[in-house]
Amino acid sequence: MISSTNRQSAMKKAALVLTVLLLGTASCVLAANYVVTGQATATVATALTVTATQELDFPLTFPGQPSTQGITHDDSTGIFTIDGEPGAKIITTFYLPEYMTGPGGDRMTITFGATDCAIDTSNAGTPAAFGDGWNNQNPQDLTAATLGADPVIGSEAPGNNTRIYIGGSIYPSIVQAAGAYTADIVLVVAYAAQ
Amino acid sequence: MRLTLRIALIVTLSTLFVGMEPGDTQTVSVVNNLEFGDVFPGVPKSIDKAQTGAAEFSVSGNAGDEITVEFILPDYMSTTSGHSMRLVFGSADLAMDSSASPNQSAPLNDDLNPYIVQTYGIGANGLSVWLGGKAVPKLVQQPGNYSADITITITYTGN
């Protein structure tokens, strides 16, 4: 014989179990939520550096006597050295002066011809002994369309760099003021789309 | 009273099992990470959702179950030393396919915005999700390995 008190106690326990189960059911349905984490990854290559290794140096020039400096002189051809990720494609652009400035602001014309530049990607090349790359190029147009491909950072150890040689011509007038003349040659280098 | 309680218990357990069924078989996993590979300073690089390197997630579940797909996307990738690189997701960088033969090149649902919660039905072979993006390195971006978390949340709607 079950007493009224015991019956009430059993009902309370059953209600408690039911409540727990109902809450469990609800949580199962509501918690159908799945999370996973993937990754975005990238490896950034070595940054570019450009160094003006050697100035384009014209020999002593006389008024009225044009002078040309080629790209094959180890001691006077202009040299830029580009370091970066070996083998990576680059874009090179020269900003070339039209004259050099001398004493008292006197100007002397400077020009750059269609073969006054070379891009040497070898480790051992010099202006006098061109290695690999693009020789006798127009410094005003070093685009991939003209070169046939984007130039690259040299990948021959231990240098792993590219050197650009540049020459030019100067045209002193017959009344050119005597003295030293200078001008900036600016080379801009950036990575190309690989 | 005992009979009533037993019936109630059976109904409750049935509800419990029926309620758990969709979620019980549902999973989401990472098939591929979003991999940009080599990136060069100053040269943005995009990985299209249809190409190798795109992130791929796989969702499995009961065919016909409705789910929502939500991403938590990073703004930057970073190195262990704390350098950061911008990461951009466009309004059409997401694609999904619940067909029997999911096709990354021509998915059923293409050019979706990954910043918007997508509601979709699971197919017989589950659901494939692809995500592209763009890394934007600075001109002076520090060399090294960069990474960021991409979190996807799949929620069963009960429909």
Describe this structure in a few short sentences.
Chain A is α+β, with helices and mostly antiparallel strands and 194 residues long.
Describe the overall structure:
The complex is a heterodimer of chains A (194) and B (159). Chain A is an alpha+beta fold and 194 residues long. Chain A has one domain (49-191): Immunoglobulin-like (Sandwich). Helices cover 16% and strands 34% of the residues of chain A. Chain A has a five-stranded antiparallel β-sheet, with no helix packed on it. Chain A is elongated. With 159 residues, chain B is mainly beta. Chain B has one domain (25-156): Sandwich (Immunoglobulin-like). Helices cover 14% and strands 44% of the residues of chain B. Chain B is built from one helix and 13 strands, in the order αβββββββββββββ. Chain B has one helix at 2-24, and strands spanning 27-32, 34-39, 45-47, 55-60, 66-72, 76-78, 84-88, 94-97, 109-112, 118-121, 127-131, 133-136, 144-156. A five-stranded antiparallel β-sheet of chain B has the order 1-4-11-8-9, with no helix packed on it. A four-stranded antiparallel β-sheet of chain B has the order 3-12-7-6, with no helix packed on it. In chain B, β6 and β7 (84-88) form a beta hairpin. The longest helix of chain B is centred in the N-terminal third of the chain and has 23 residues, at 2-24. Chain B is elongated. At the A-B interface, α1 and β1 of A face α1, β1, β2, β4 and β13 of B.
